[in-house]
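hey so i finally got around to running the thing on that chain from the lab meeting. sorry it took forever, my laptop kept dying and i had to restart like 3 times. anyway pasting the input first so we r on the same page abt which one it is
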Amino acid sequence: MSKIPNRASPLPPEARKAAIIEAVIPAMIEHGAALTSRQIAEAAGVAEGTVFRAFGDKETLLREAAETYLDPAPLRARLAAVESSLPLEEKVCAVLTLLQQRFHGVISIMAATGRIGDAPPDVRQRTPERPWEYVSIVSALMKPELERLNVPLEDIAPYVRLIAFATSIPAFNQERVFDPRELSRLIVYGVAGGGEPEDEDAARAQAGHAASRGMASTEQRDEASTLQAVDA
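ok and heres what got predicted. didnt touch it at all, straight out
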């Protein structure tokens, strides 16, 4: 008589919840506000009843999945993994691509939770951890190109983030879809060529402007740190 194979042990409740959240996040990004309970169950590979037993209701699941997705640590790790020896344009393209994916996901996640223009309460109340880490990571990545730059090193990260955000909003991109390579060339070279100063006076003026902006950025960081300490 053949032995009946043992069934796999059921997951502990917290492990099951984590597995469902991990499986549901891509479905939230794909479907946004149109996501249904049936699609959630299909994405997680479980019955709808299992989802409701684990989370109580759909809204709780979506809120907890949003909190998980909005954790900045995985994105920071991927940014830090970009190779600093790559050419400047390729590094900008890599950062831009990661940020576009991130913003697209955030917009879809917020749509799925019904909170476009807002964040789930638990996420909104959470103080951002190490708010300057993104700028530090991108600055370290671009530092080998320091002699080529016409702007302070710490300004690159906000510039790339602004362009990534704007090109991730569907309403802003109805006429055409902007390719990350195209946008990275725009960031690196501008719209009028290499952007080299016309003479030494212009070069000195540009260098002085960059230095003063760098000092202002340092003061802004100090002020932000002070405000954060007060808020804490």
